[in-house]
Amino acid sequence: MDAERVLDSFKDDLNPERHILISTMTGVSIDKIQNVIGDHIPIVRIMPNTAVAICESMTCLAADDEHLDSLAVVQKVFDQLGQTLLVKESLIAPAGSPGCISRWYWDRFSCRRSDLAGCPNSQGSSIPNH
Question: Phi and psi for 9 in degrees, rounded to 5?
Answer without folding.
Answer: -70, -20
